[in-house]
Amino acid sequence: AVFILILPDLLSEFLVEVLDVSFKSNFRLYNTNVVRLLKSSKDTRVAAHSRRVFANRLQCREQLEVGQQYLIMGKDGSTTDSHGEMQYLLDSTTWVELVPDAQKCASSRRYELNLRRLGRHDSPSQGCIATAMLHSFS
């Protein structure tokens, strides 16, 4: 079983898989496949199997890994890519969680308990994802 935490004050919530990473200007660009759309307000064309770009600043040490799935919750995108699709900035207001695979998650009960531990972290640094916000359940 998969348990998803929905936070009402966030505008967009996705379960994504990182396909590849590129670099442009001062940003790391993550090309992702939307595995599951949980909530979206402005991005009317997004659905499961859509491609979306998530960006973070190069000075941010937190990075997403190709091939991994992440739960990403945050503000709607404010820019579009070359195909007119919305892009999203991973910053200090974005919640990012690595989704554990079956081997790392011994039971759905452990996963549920970890989700309950999610709380508010108020330690943003230079507009980056706060370190405590980007972690796995392993």
TrEMBL record:
Source domain of life: Eukaryota
Main location: secreted
Record keywords: Disulfide bond, Secreted
Keyword Disulfide bond in record: yes
Residues of the NTR domain: 1-128
GO cellular component: extracellular region
One Pfam entry name: NTR
InterPro entries, sorted: Netrin_domain, Netrin_module_non-TIMP, TIMP-like_OB-fold
Subcellular localization, as worded in the UniProt entry: Secreted
Protein name: NTR domain-containing protein
Organism for this UniProt entry: Gadus morhua
